[in-house]
Amino acid sequence: MKPIDVGIIGCGTAGSAAALFLSRAGHRVTVYERVPDPGPVGAGVMLQPTGQAVLGVLGLRDAVLARCTPITRMICRTAGGRQLFDLRYGDIPGDRVGYGLHRGLLFEHLFRAVRAANVTLRLGVTVENLENAGKGRGLYFLTPEGERLGPHAVCVVADGARSQLRDDTCIGKRIRPYPWGALWFVGEDPGGTFRGELRQVVRGTGRMVGLLPTGFGPGEGPTTDKISLFYSLPAAGLDAWRAAGLDAWKREVRALAPAAEPVLDQIHSADEVLFARYHDVSMYPWNDDRVVYLGDAAHAMSPQLGQGANLALWDAMVLAEELAAHESLPIALDAYSRARRSHLDYYQFVTRWLTPFFQSDLAPLGWLRDFGFPIATAMPFVRRLMVRSMCGIAQGIGIDAPIALPAPDPLPRLGATA
Prior knowledge:
Helix content: 25-40%
Structural class: alpha/beta
Strand content: 25-35%
Distance between the termini: 10 Å
């Protein structure tokens, strides 16, 4: 494929990574971001081996990991102390480890690289609709003010789970907000007490507290460990949580997870605690002849497996590979959807199946989880599958081979002729 004009909507993880891959491959790239001055916000996320590998291809891995915290295991216990699972990266072959980091750190490094790249960046621009520009001319991007932007040969939609641009194609889809979300707080862990482990404590299916080591945070400032505390909460219960007051919530969290005490002591106002609600987005394929969806715009899911950012990075890399491998744009986009199907189908299926055992009003599922998970994780095959799933490399429940991680070498450039 010769270089083409690419318009990317959204400058989050998927959009920024796609902009870097495609501009480095020789395409003409314009990124539209509705926020006038985007900055590093959010809470803790997990950077799995898949995401690490993609950052390695982009040349950003070492700089990002320098401010992350290595995590070697994920532990979940009941409030009564029963261990449900203790998953270690070392339980499968390969020298793998996860990293806890602040979402803003990942954004900061990707966005800085986009600014330095051969990319046209349009900030403070909202794209409301797409319009066919005529035979062979691509697509116009329409703003709420009626301005036509472009045309671009291809549109990459990467504006998140709440994207309003899925209705601009005829792709079948289902978008459903999860009834549950989570409260988040990022605090200080100056002694590194929580390093090395993602800890979760559950009581039934309605209560869950987690502690995720979150590295040093964005910026170039002091290297003080951060820790993200998260607490499961129904979206409909947010107002009641605020009305009950901070002290009542702290007492409940302490009762569930006494280790959270030093983090809770840092919270002085309910305004310091963020609420994140999640969506379940199902669509296939993720493309038509001129439009392709990446990241949460294509396949948002519950964060139970902690794969959102990693899947978004992998999407961007595969899109660039397929565009480099085919001369025809529609064929390349179809190949992208086929290439991503088994990987994404697996994580969406497992996430939908797993979430009600940890976040729902179905109390019997909590009893079944507390009884069955310790037995399941003691089985070598199940344990290996769970660890591969944690790493981001699984793409099937049976004997399907895990996905291969790329070496940190740049993708080849496209032909130089225009």
